Structure formats: C-alpha cells, structure tokens
Amino acid sequence: MKNRHQKLAIIVLALIVIAAVVALVLNALNSNIALYISPSDVKAGKYPNDKIFRIGGLVKENSVQRQADGVSVSFIVTDTNNEVKVLYKGILPDLFSEGKGVVAQGKIDSQKNFVAQEVLAKHDENYMPPEAAKALQDAHVEGVKAKYENQENNK
Known about the structure:
Helix content: 25-40%
Radius of gyration: 23 Å
Shape: elongated
Structural class: alpha+beta
C-alpha cells in the first residue's frame, strides 16, 4: 500500500471513530434530559408517557399529607390555574413548605398522579426556575382572563 493510501485510511478511520464517539455522547445526553412541564400542561395531557420529566409550581396550602411510615408524602403542585397531586417516598428538602416553589422529577402513574423520584425546593427567597416562573405567570393570566369572561357573561 502506498504511503498516500495509508494516510487516507488513517484519516477515514479517525473520522469514523470520532463520529461514533459523538453519536454515543449525544445519545447519552438525550436520554438524561428531563423536560419541564407545568401542571396546566399535565392536565391537558401534554406530557411524555413513560418518560421522566419535571413538574414545578407552588405547593398548595394544606395539601401536604405525611404517611405513618415517615417517608411517604403526598402534596399538590399548582400553577394557580391547575393542580397535580404528587406522591413521593423519601426525605423532603429542608426548605420544602406549603406555599413555596418546588420542582419534582418523575413520571405520571395510571391514576394520573405524579410519582416523584426527586423533589427540589427553592434555595432562597428570590429563586424559582425560569420555566416554573413563566408557567405560574401564564396560568395566572389565563385564570384572570377566565374570571373576567365569566363576570362579563353573568351580566
């Protein structure tokens, strides 16, 4: 084999190896991405079936129910327009409380409850994930519009 053909073969082989590595990395990243879905989107059925995703909003007041085993808890996450019941088995973050922001990661079960594998609470007074803040704002605007339309229709 000529020297020129050897160099070409090495370059082609290197390109194939690089392409395979890039494909494997992109596949790994894609499988670990957890989409963010609002409670309104969940109620509308706009969530991935059998795939992990994140839901966020506010913990509804008086919705936290702790089970006798000490680690199982259920609560409602709301975007002020719609609500989703969350089931979680584990220790909640110290900053978790009613009326505060929360993001949970998990899947929807057959009873349309969100079964969380992980629960994250906001870490200071001003923090909320941008997606959760936008979803809360959008749901609030929709709720105000619906309330106004109902008042206009009742006149």
